[in-house]
Amino acid sequence: MLMRLSVPKNREGSGSVMSMYWKTLLVVVLTAASASALRAQPVSPANLAGVGYDSHIELKWTASTSPNIIAYNIYRSASPDGPFALLRQVGASTPNALDFIGRIDTVFSYRVTALNSSGQESAPTSVQTATVAAMSDDDLMTMVQRYTFRYFWEHSHPVSGLARERLNSGDIVTTGGSGFGISAIPVAVERGFITRQEGLLRMIQIVSFLELRAQRYHGAFAHWLNGNTGATIPFSQFDNGGDLVETAFLMQGLLTVRSYFNQDVPLENSLRSTITRLWEDVEWGWYRRNDSNVLYWHWSPNYQWQMNFQLRGFNETMITYILGVASPTHGIPASLYHSGWASNGGFVTPAAYFGYPMYVGGFRGGPLFFAHYSYLGFDPRNKRDAYCNYFTRNRNHTLINREYCIANPKNHAGYGPDSWGLTASDNPWGYLAHEPVFDRDNGTIAPTAALSSMPYTPAQSMAALKHFYRNLGNRLWGYYGFTDAYNIGQNWFASSYLAIDQGPIIGMIENHRTGLLWDLFMANPEMQPALDSIGFIAEQSAVAPDLALPAEVLVYPNPSNGHFSIFLEAAESFTAQIQLTDALGRQVRNWGAFYIQNGENNLSFDTNELPAGVYQLRLTSGARRHTQRILVFHN
Fold first, then answer.
1. pTM score, two decimals?
2. Helix H segments across 339-389?
3. Distance (Å, rounded) from C-alpha 355 to C-alpha 336?
4. Taking Cα atoms as reference points, which of 599, 551, 559, 542 lies closest to residue 578?
5. pLDDT at 2
6. Coil, helix or strand at residue 246
């Protein structure tokens, strides 16, 4: 039966009354329709896909098209036929999830539903299965590179294409971190994460923004930029102008890419030309501050040289001097490398820690990013300047950092042979340049420290990668790879990602695997003449030691009261140097070389003359090593 509507009449204003009536009716109808829509079951997500890795499965799906979706429910089963149990719920803005299962070989099945604000759940997606299976070392490294690259590819600023400072930085993009991300683009193309065309178009977006919109100060960029406008965002009160070191990191990346996109086609020709203009516009000599014998980090049009930060090593700034000497337009004399960077040899360190010579740099080498930032492009292998071979120096720096974490003089929870790496990172109390010294070691380990050291200590860094992923991954592994840091003693795992920590992971792992970025950067024609003028000469670099001696090693009694013995069951004969260092890495005993025969060996040592305390026993045979803590006490 049809309902008849009675419409009120008004002879004098019937049009107005009619309009009001129909508007009211329309509101009622729309409100009813909206309520009905809310009561309707949401549309299911679509295209659920799952990819299995060594210890986790990644799920992705297409978002539901229904309004007011507030979450997705993820269900898992050991069988495609169920039963399915709720695994977890993720927010509506996150159509993906990681299921960290651990190191087991098995198949899991999944389905996903959408949930709206009325609490109604959609029908599930079709079932998707994925397998967790052991991965080779190469596959694990590729996985880490792929996930980490997402930070620069998917989380980049949409206007500039540059890297955001950290996960929730909004429009703040970072110059140096962008340089590291730019270096990762050739890696991503070669590894098949993106196509060459995609990488090329992203680079054109970036360099166009840098040339046409970004503020520059005598050719140098600020530390932070607004990713929309290119305007400088002050890094601190007086740091609102040119940052020469961040600019050097950016140029290192740009010159690496200039070598990579080398085809004689219009877009690649244009990209190379723009990079060359940006490179040649940097007035390295201006940052000498009135032709002094050292470079300065900052200059501001408002505050001039008020930051007053001279670039003297050893730290992360070596690449700044190399690029300054290499510049074809606004270069600095090679003598500045020695008077400024090397302080006329004043940065030489005639000391060894845990048995490793330091050559140059501060006590125990400083935070590990010193060994990474300048070496994404600059290849330190098989060459030395007047002071040292920097590959060997960086290898020793890394091993000292690791040995300190093994010795663990502050007894932090979670430190060990596979859980090491002190560098600048977030921590439970904020941010700190962590390093192996008492007041800068607060129990915080950053994965970037060990992973970015892969060229120097491949076996040790690979063991750390496996520990971070397989043992800690349920709290440390996310959509962009490893989060920034963790502190076991504080039961704290970062949720943050930082561009300057993510970038070196990709590039330095690749330099270990193929030397790609080293080869590309060093192929720039300006590089070798600069190194020649500085005085670099050929020298074979030391290789990183293996993790263990070819023997089972047992130290007893430990704690030791007056003596201890070393029992070795060797698979082959070899000679081992045996030393003892204190908790600070200083040698306290050198017992010399011992011949270890194939089979069982038992060696005894006296500790009566040693003060009570914690020591580090070191057995070394060529490139192989065994280290172990030993406690000495006296009745």
1. 0.86
2. none
3. 32
4. 551
5. 36
6. helix
Could you give the CA distance from residue 390 to residue 345 in angstroms, rounded to a whole number?
A: 15
Whether 343 contacts 336, CB under 8 Å? no
Parallel, antiparallel, or unpaired: how do β-strands 128-132 and 486-487 relate? unpaired
Let me know how many helices (H) and strands (E) the chain has, helices first: 15, 31
The helix (run of H) or strand (run of E) holding residue 391 is: helix 390-407
pLDDT of residue 29: 47
Distance CA 382, CA 539 (A): 5
Instruction: Give the count of beta carbons closer than 10 Å to the beta carbon of residue 495.
Output: 11
Pick the closest to residue 98 from 491, 588, 479 (CA basis).
479
Give residue-wise pLDDT tens across range 391-412. Answer: 999 999 999 999 999 999 999 9
Q: What is the pLDDT of residue 623?
A: 62
Q: Which residue has the tokens 């950016």?
A: 250
Q: What is the pLDDT of residues 222-258, one digit of tens each?
A: 999 999 999 999 999 999 999 999 999 999 999 999 9
Q: For the segment 537-577, what is each residue's pLDDT rounded down to a tens digit?
A: 999 988 766 667 778 889 989 888 889 999 999 888 888 88
Which residue, among 499, 484, 424, 483, has the nearest Cα to 174 in the 3D structure? 499
Which ranges of the chain have pLDDT less than 50? 1-14, 17-18, 26, 28-34, 37-38
Query: Which conformational region is residue 364 in: left (phi greater than 0), alpha (psi within -120 to 50 degrees), or beta?
Result: left
What is the C-alpha to C-alpha distance for residues 98 and 562, in angstroms, rounded to an integer? 53
Q: 359: alpha, beta or left, given left = phi > 0 and alpha = psi -120 to 50?
A: left
316 Cβ contact partners less than 8 Å away, ≥ 6 residues apart:
245, 369, 370, 372, 373, 374
Identify the three-state secondary structure at position 279. Answer: helix
Q: Tell me if 554 sits within 8 A of 630, measured CB to CB.
A: no
Closest-CA residue to 495 (of 512, 478, 520, 473)? 478
CA distance 359 to 37: 72
Residues 6+ apart with CB under 8 A from 456: 371, 391, 394, 395, 397, 398, 399, 544
Distance, in Å, from the CA atom of 227 to the CA atom of 174, rounded to the nearest integer, reads: 9
> By three-state DSSP, how is residue 226 classified?
strand
What is the pLDDT, as a whole number, of residue 39? 62
Q: Residue 71: its pLDDT value, please?
A: 98
Angstrom distance (rounded) from CA 608 to CA 604: 13
Place of tokens 């270096």: 183
The tokens for 28 are 């009622």
SS3 308: coil
CA distance 160 to 230: 8
Residue recorded with tokens 């596959």:
139
CA angle 310, 504, 537 (to 5 degrees): 65
Length of the chain: 635
Q: Cα torsion for 464, 470, 472, 474, to the nearest 10°?
A: 150
Collect all residues with Cβ–Cβ distance below 8 Å to 121 and sequence separation of at least 6: 41, 42, 73, 113, 114, 115
What values do phi and psi take at 121, rounded to 5?
A: -110, 140
